[in-house]
Amino acid sequence: MTNYRIRSHPILSIEERDCFSFTWQGQTLEACAGETIASALFANGIRIFGYHPKDGSPQGIFCANGQCAQCTVIADGLPCKACMTLVRPGMVVQPLSGLPALPQDLSPVQTFTPTRIIQTECLIIGGGPAGLSAAIELGQRGIQTLVVDDKHRLGGKLVLQTHRFFGSINACYAGTRGIDIATRLANQVAQYPSVQTWLNSTAVAVYSDKRVGVVREGEYLLVEPRVLLVATGAREKSLTFKGNTLPGVYGAGAFQTLVNRDLVKCAERLFIVGGGNVGLIAGYHALQAGIEVAGLVEALPECGGYKVHKDKLIRMGVPIYTSHTVLSANGTNSVESVTIAAIDKDWKPIPGTEKTFTCDTLLIAVGLDPVNEFFRKAREFGLTCFAAGDADEVAEASAAMFSGKIRGLEIARALGYEVPQVPPEWFLTAEILKSRPGEVTQESIPEDEAVYPVIHCSQEIPCNPCTSVCSQGAIFIDEHDIRKVPEYIAKRLGVECIACEKCVTICPGLAITLVDTRKQTDGTALVTIPYEFGREALQAGDRVTVTDTGGQILGQVEVVRTRIAKTTDRTMLVKVRAPLEIAKRIAGIEVQNRQIAAPLEQWVERLSDDMIVCRCERVNLAEIKALIQCGVRDMNEIKAITRAGMGACGGKTCTDLIKRAFRELGVPMSEVTEGTIRPLFVEVPLGILAGVKEE
Q: In terms of domains, do 590 and 459 share one?
């Protein structure tokens, strides 16, 4: 069987891991230590985890974050989420097809243990950027804190981010890679004796007695905090289109988990739906992992993510289709192609604009919803609680870190500790870090200088690392508002660029190049370009295709030298010799052959009406809309009739899609009764709740 593990990566270190055997449907497969069942199956080329009992449809993964139940399998006789359960040596894994068989011996000796109650001053649910930042503030003050996280390592989404972070270099480690920030925060938390962390531990409910149920290592416990901080992050939104639940259709965050955390090459060629930062970054991560990207589709006239992310993807050879939508994922048992079309001002597909692209994976990156059930329930029951990061407001991880820092100070005050008020400038910084992209200006290119940086970043976003590293202090951003576009002001200061290349290296958007005309007498210049695709990819003497900011090909040029060192932090600096007339316009090197992204000659139409709203119960959009058109205005009634929202995930993925169906039919949400959300928020075996211990 083919092995789909990543063997080399330009940013991530590939270390040898202990391997062992497990079985899937009686077949012996190889897994690596610390790997989830889902990752182990993907590494062995298996993408279908079971078949739905209602209609026999193949089931794969969607969120890879424990928020849905689509990847459920039977492991050693018990149902579990493949994306959250670590594979063990000798584990026997089977697909979930209907209910598992009951054991023959129905009278095992059992004992019941009482539920332990753990008291703490502060309970933090979520060990991501916000939760860890708050824990650091509390730990610095010796406040008893318990951090609970359902993953097997701290860091949350930071452990998936290989790129450098935007934001403030002083406030949130801007210019540092997310994977390294995760390590820094985890190491800081470990320094404080008052902070305890529980990994592989799932918070499942908040109760009226102000206790929080937690499942840890098969034991159900109740945690009784004086203050609760909910830093549970966000879950990925879904989307309805034909074939939207085929294996191979899954969230961009799930893709990053498989590729960047578990080092699994889970696709050969993919297509992306959604032009926010998550989708744009996922495309870049795919290219780094050696995965082809056929394109990205965005319904809005312009991508909502940072322009530098979009530009980076375009100039590497990935087309972006704005004012387009996805019509269908095509295939029988898994994705074989995707069909898109342009849309009009009313968001309707325009006939005759359909295009189909060959791919085996379709990434959905259409936004995030806060995981805030715990916060809302805690408020309802009168428990002193706070929310931070995406659980409070969906934004960038840099903003999540700073909001966690603020909440840590607020929690300390709520607990009665003598700490200062949160400084007003902290709130201002938090607002700046949460800012959406602003105005786009024209690129500023210096004139009449022998050597100078060209800043291809032309959109107002919160980011300032380039200003902090310039040896001459010649890159300027207003320190009171780092959303401004950086300016090169060497002439104004009366200094000259010394070609240290630090700004080229640190830019999170790979949006700065260096042009050097010194010693060049043949009408050429040396241009230094940041490149993150491995030392072996380029050598001196190679010819490469260079592009401008918008992806337009400028020509082929010669590589003069490549440099990668500790100071460049895994970014390779590629120096090329280019004619003066294009040197200033060079923004990057094309990575992917553009033929990869060419559509098929004939577009593919999917005939089956399988726009699924509820993945757990296989309820389609037509069923939901039929009820709404019959006058149903209560989501609980829809649930009772169709079972939409009654599945294992508790309505986490379908609730927004049902609301969208109301809006599409012109029904205002003011006329709709929301569905009732009941604990438990996460599935728990009854035996664990009861404290059953088998002997």
A: yes
Buried b (16+ CB within 10 A) or exposed e, 482-520: bbbbbebebeeeeeebebebbbbbbbbbbbbbbbbbeee
Same domain, residue pair 587 and 630: no
- CATH code: domain of residue 230: 3.50.50.60
| Element containing residue 177 per DSSP (H, E) | none
In the block, which residue shows the tokens 């394109």? Answer: 295
CATH (domain of 646): 1.10.10
Residue 81 has pLDDT above 80, yes or no: yes
CB contact set of 390 (below 8 Å; sequence gap of 6+):
130, 232, 233, 234, 368, 370, 371, 400
Instruction: Indicate whether 465 and 528 sit together in one domain.
Output: yes
Mean pLDDT of 611-633: 96
In a domain, 659, yes or no: yes
**Pair (589, 651) in one structural domain:** no
**For residue 261, what pLDDT is reported?**
94
Q: Which two tokens stand for residue 435?
A: 């800012």
List the beta bridge partners of residue 692: 112
Distance (Å, rounded) from C-alpha 553 to C-alpha 586? 9
- Count of structural domains, the chain: 4
Average pLDDT of the segment spanning 604-608: 93
336: left (phi over 0), alpha (psi -120 to 50) or beta: alpha
CATH number at residue 67: 3.10.20.440
**3 state SS of 300:** coil
- Asked whether residue 191 is domain-assigned, the answer is yes
Residue entry with tokens 């909502």: 304
Nearest residue to 174 (alpha-carbon basis) of 362, 547, 433: 433
Largest CA distance in the chain: 90
Same-domain status, 545 and 576: yes
Looking at 75, 101, 127, the residue that finishes a domain is 101
The amino acid occupying position 521 is T
Sequence-ordered list of residues with C-beta below 8 angstroms from that of 523, at least 6 positions apart, any chain: 579, 580
3-state SS assignment for residue 478: coil
Residues 592, 469 share a domain = yes
Condensed to tens digits (0 to 9), the pLDDT of residues 218-234 reads 899 999 999 999 999 99
Domain that holds residue 52: 18-101
| pLDDT tens column, 493-529 | 999 999 999 999 999 999 999 999 998 778 899 999 9
Question: What integer is the mean pLDDT of 134-149?
Answer: 97
Average pLDDT taken over every residue of the chain: 93
Give residue 201's pLDDT. Answer: 96
Any domain includes 571: yes
Name residue 543's beta-bridge partners: 558
The percentage of residues in the chain with a pLDDT greater than 90, rounded to a whole number, is 82
Angle subtended at Cα 688 by Cα 682 and Cα 691, rounded to the nearest 5 degrees? 140
Whether 456 and 583 map to the same domain: the answer is yes
pLDDT tens figures, 339-382 = 999 999 999 999 999 999 999 999 999 999 999 999 999 999 99
Long-range Cβ contacts of 282-285 (<8 Å, 24+ apart): 282/252, 282/255, 282/256, 282/363, 282/365, 283/313, 283/318, 284/163, 284/309, 284/312, 284/313, 284/316, 285/162, 285/163, 285/255, 285/256, 285/259, 285/260
Based on the domain organization, do 476 and 555 belong to the same domain? yes
Q: How far is CA 147 from CA 60, 133, 156, 214, 216, in A?
A: 31, 11, 12, 11, 12
> What are the structure tokens assigned to 218, written together?
């098969």
Single-letter code of the amino acid located at 149: D
- The strand pairing partners of 125, in sequence order, are 148, 230
The backbone torsions φ and ψ at residue 76, rounded to the nearest 5 degrees and listed phi first, read 50, 40
Separation CA 199–CA 485 (nearest Å): 41
